[in-house]
TrEMBL record:
<dbReference type="GO" id="GO:0046166">
    <property type="term" value="P:glyceraldehyde-3-phosphate biosynthetic process"/>
</dbReference>
<comment type="pathway">
    <text>Carbohydrate degradation; glycolysis; D-glyceraldehyde 3-phosphate from glycerone phosphate: step 1/1.</text>
</comment>
<comment type="similarity">
    <text>Belongs to the triosephosphate isomerase family.</text>
</comment>
<comment type="subunit">
    <text>Homodimer.</text>
</comment>
<feature type="binding site">
    <location>
        <position position="178"/>
    </location>
    <ligand>
        <name>substrate</name>
    </ligand>
</feature>
<dbReference type="GO" id="GO:0019563">
    <property type="term" value="P:glycerol catabolic process"/>
</dbReference>
<comment type="pathway">
    <text>Carbohydrate biosynthesis; gluconeogenesis.</text>
</comment>
<comment type="function">
    <text>Involved in the gluconeogenesis. Catalyzes stereospecifically the conversion of dihydroxyacetone phosphate (DHAP) to D-glyceraldehyde-3-phosphate (G3P).</text>
</comment>
<dbReference type="InterPro" id="IPR000652">
    <property type="entry name" value="Triosephosphate_isomerase"/>
</dbReference>
<dbReference type="GO" id="GO:0004807">
    <property type="term" value="F:triose-phosphate isomerase activity"/>
</dbReference>
<feature type="active site" description="Proton acceptor">
    <location>
        <position position="172"/>
    </location>
</feature>
<feature type="binding site">
    <location>
        <begin position="10"/>
        <end position="12"/>
    </location>
    <ligand>
        <name>substrate</name>
    </ligand>
</feature>
<keyword id="KW-0413">Isomerase</keyword>
<dbReference type="GO" id="GO:0005829">
    <property type="term" value="C:cytosol"/>
</dbReference>
<dbReference type="InterPro" id="IPR022896">
    <property type="entry name" value="TrioseP_Isoase_bac/euk"/>
</dbReference>
<dbReference type="InterPro" id="IPR035990">
    <property type="entry name" value="TIM_sf"/>
</dbReference>
<dbReference type="InterPro" id="IPR013785">
    <property type="entry name" value="Aldolase_TIM"/>
</dbReference>
Length: 255
C-alpha cells in the first residue's frame, strides 16, 4: 500500500504566538501547492500558539496541517494544567504527539499513560503520533529492536486493528534527539521494519502496510533524503530543524 510521507515539525517549548504565525507563513509560502499532493507537512507548536495557527491556516486556506505536543488522558474536569482531546479537536488539530521521549523521561510518562493519551486522541478524532525510542545504553547493548517493540506493545496494548490503522508511529532513538547524531539509514530501517512487523501481529498485515512509521532524531535537510528513502520509513519527526523555515521547507520538499 502506498503511504504518503509525513514531515512533522515538533517545535517543543519554543516560539510565542506571533513568532508562530511568522514561521507558518514562511513555511507555507516556501512550499508550492503541488508538494502537498506528495507529502503531508504538519507543524506541532506549543498549546498557546494553536489558536493563532488555526486562524492563519483556515483564513489563508493553507495546505499544511498542525497538531499538539501532548493531550490529557482525561475528558474534562479538575485536572489543572491539562488540555483535553476535545479542546484540541475544536482548535482544528490533526495530530497529537504522545509519548515523546522528553515526556517519558522528564515527566515520568509510562507506557500506560501513553496508551491512555493515545486513546484520548483517537476518541476525539485526532491522529496520535506515538513515539518510541531507546536510550544509548540499550543501543550499545544491541537490544534496540526488542526494547522498541516492547515499548510499542505497551503503548498500544489492547487497541483494536481499526484503532491501530489510525495512528502514526515515530521511532526516535533518544541518543539522536537534539544531539546532532542522526541514526544511520540502515539503523532507522531496521527498527521501522520491526515496528511494521509488530503492527502486523497486533492488527493485520493490511493495517501494518498502511500505517506511517516516521524516524526522528537530528533530521535536517542534508540527511533526510537517505532516511526517508528506506522502505519502511515514511517521513520524519523533526525538532530543531523545524524552527528554521528555510530548512524545514527544504527538507519537506526532499522527503
Ligand atoms: C524531536 O524532538 O522529536 C526531535 C527529533 O528533535 P531533533 O530533530 O532536534 O533531534
Amino acid at each position: 500500500m502506498a503511504r504518503k510521507p509525513l514531515i512533522a515539525g515538533n517545535w517543543k517549548m519554543n516560539l510565542n504566538h506571533l513568532e508562530a504565525i511568522a514561521l507558518v507563513q514562511k513555511i507555507a509560502f516556501s512550499l508550492p501547492a503541488k508538494y502537498f499532493e506528495r507529502v503531508d507537512v504538519t507543524v506541532i507548536p506549543p498549546f498557546t500558539d494553536l489558536r493563532s495557527v488555526q486562524t492563519l491556516v483556515e483564513g489563508d486556506k493553507l495546505l499544511l496541517t498542525y497538531g499538539a505536543q501532548d493531550v490529557s488522558p482525561h475528558d474534562s474536569g479538575a485536572y489543572t494544567g491539562e488540555v483535553s482531546g476535545s479542546m484540541l479537536a475544536k482548535l482544528g488539530c490533526t495530530f497529537v504527539v504522545v509519548g515523546h521521549s522528553e515526556r517519558r523521561t522528564l515527566f515520568g510518562e509510562s507506557d500506560e499513560i501513553v496508551l491512555a493519551k493515545t486513546k484520548a486522541a483517537l476518541k476525539n478524532g485526532l491522529t496520535p503520533i506515538v513515539c518510541i525510542g531507546e536510550g544509548l545504553n540499550v543501543r550499545v547493548a544491541g537490544e534496540h529492536v526488542e526494547y522498541n517493540i516492547a515499548q510499542l506493545r505497551g503503548s498500544l496494548a489492547g487497541l483494536s486493528a481499526e484503532d491501530i490503522s489510525k495512528i502514526v508511529v515515530a521511532y526516535e532513538p533518544v541518543w539522536a534527539i537534539g544531539t546532532g547524531k542522526v541514526a544511520s539509514a540502515a539503523h532507522a530501517q531496521e527498527v521501522c521494519k520491526a515496528v511494521r512487523e509488530e503492527l502486523a501481529r497486533l492488527a493485520s498485515p493490511e493495517v501494518a502496510a498502511g500505517v506511517r512509521v516516521l524516524y526522528g532524531g537530528s533530521v535536517n535537510a542534508k540527511n533526510v533524503g537517505e532516511i526517508v528513502n528506506q522502505s519502511d520509513v515514511d517521513g520524519a519527526l523533526v525538532g530543531g530543524a523545524s524552527l528554521k523555515a528555510d530548512e524545514f521547507a527544504t527538507l519537506s520538499a526532499i522527503a
